[in-house]
Each structure stands twice: as C-alpha cells, then as structure tokens.
Methyltransferase domain-containing protein (Amycolatopsis xylanica), 257 residues
Amino acid sequence: MGNESTPISHELRAKRATSFGGAAAAYAAHRPDYPIAAVRWGLSGAAKAPVNVLDLAAGTGKLTTTLVEQGLTVTAVEPDEQMLAQLRHALPGITALDGHAERIPLETASVDAVFVGQAFHWFDAEPALTEISRVLRPGGVLVTLWNYDDLSVPWVAEFGELFGAPTGRTWAASAARLPDHPNFAPSEQETFRHKQRRTAESLVATLATHSHVLAAASEERAAILRTAQEFLAGRPETASGEFDRPIVVTGFRARRR
Ligand SMILES: C[S@@+](CC[C@H](N)C(=O)[O-])C[C@H]1O[C@@H](n2cnc3c(N)ncnc32)[C@H](O)[C@@H]1O
C-alpha cells in the first residue's frame, strides 16, 4: 500500500486521481496522518519561518490538521467535493477552496509554504510546479510528503507485495522525487518513522481507500479485500487485536528561488 502511482494509461490515471471522493468518509477514518517531525522539517526549508501555508490536494484534511496544530494559518485546496466536505466538517475554521494544482485559486506570492501529502503524482508536474511557484513568496518552500509501508518489516513487505500497486519497492525512491524546475532550488529529501494503530479489519479498510482498489471492478475489489483479510488472519503479528502498522514517511522540500 502507499504506492499509488504506476506507469498506467492517461485514462486510468485520471480515473484513479478522481476515485477518492466515493470513499471520502472511509478515507478520513482509515488513512494515516503525518508525523509532526516531517512537517517541521518541511517548514524549516523556507528562508524564514512560514506563517501562511497552503495544503494542496488536501483531501479530507489529514495533513491540514497537523499544519493547523503547528499554529499556522492554513488554506486547503482540493478538487473533489466529497473530500472537501469531509475536510470542512473536520476543520470548520479553515479556508477550504475548490481547486486544482494546475490552477490554484490564490493570489500570486500569497503563501510561505505549500504542502502536498500523498498527491503530487496526480498532478501534471510541470504546470503544477509553475503554478505552485506563482503562489509561493520567494524564499518559500514546497514540501511533498509520502506515507509508505515500512518494507523492512517482513509481514508488511509481503502484504505490500500482494496487495500494493504494482509499482513495487523502487517507486518511493525514484518517481516520488520532485522534478527539477527553474523556479525552485534543487530538492532535499528526508525520511521519518511513523505508525498507525490498526486491526486486521481496519487495515483492510485502509487498503480499500487506495486508488488501485477503488478503481478496480467490484468483483476484483471484493476478491482483493477478502484475500487481504485472509492474509492478515494467517499472520501472528496481525491475526488478532491491535497492532502498529509501521510506516516510513519520505519528504521532499524545494525552496522557491
Ligand atoms: C491520496 S489523496 C491525499 C489527500 C491528502 N493530502 C492526504 O494526505 O490525506 C490524493 C488527493 O489528491 C487530489 N487530487 C487529484 N488530482 C489533483 C489535482 N490535479 N490537483 C489537486 N488535487 C488533486 C484528490 O482529489 C485527492 O483528494
């Protein structure tokens, strides 16, 4: 899980990029949040301490919540109305706008940092970077964060191999990297340990919120989830009760020139 980008057709990519809304409530309930250390590391990439921050592709507000807890003034932008409804319900005090990465509904040079959680792969990278650089003040920072399964743990690696998107292990290290862009200094990368408290049932519910499962035909989706449930029931680490799902968060940050 956690790897939602694979060399797929334009059509399937578009289908997957817009697949989340139908599962917005499940997404809010079952996707992991982000570690504070990763958010602080991202913020520290700006030339001066950020005050106004954009959470782009904010979804149901998982990353928005952590940013708000840092005392920042946060604007959320998200194109899916059902995801946005969840976010507005969870964070009623936040400015939450309908918009895309390629056309952000904010003034030029109006924010000090732009965060993107688990979503940059859905963007049209070059136009999105140009648009993100427009809304960022010079010296501001773009931060992309990715929640990945910790594949150094055997049961997690096996689970990911069986039920993750077919991109496999190398994707996190390569495709998630921020592409070069003339308006940004070269990017930096860091990793952070994280975890999510799960049961076998709730981990299957998490799997069900991933785009490669959401976009599958209903029989295929049911078969994936049934087999995942059987796998977890058969492993001593996950068979009964609660356990920690180990996560590695990879962050990239690049300063606006
Ligand atoms: C995996 S979710 C991540 C949501 C949230 N950032 C989080 O970490 O939980 C990906 C989000 O990207 C949004 N998205 C897809 N294409 C987009 C685009 N071109 N511009 C902005 N958001 C987009 C989807 O609607 C979805 O809410």
Q: What stands out?
A: The radius of gyration is 18 Å. The beta strands are 52-56, 73-78, 95-98, 111-117, 136-149, 188-198, 243-255.
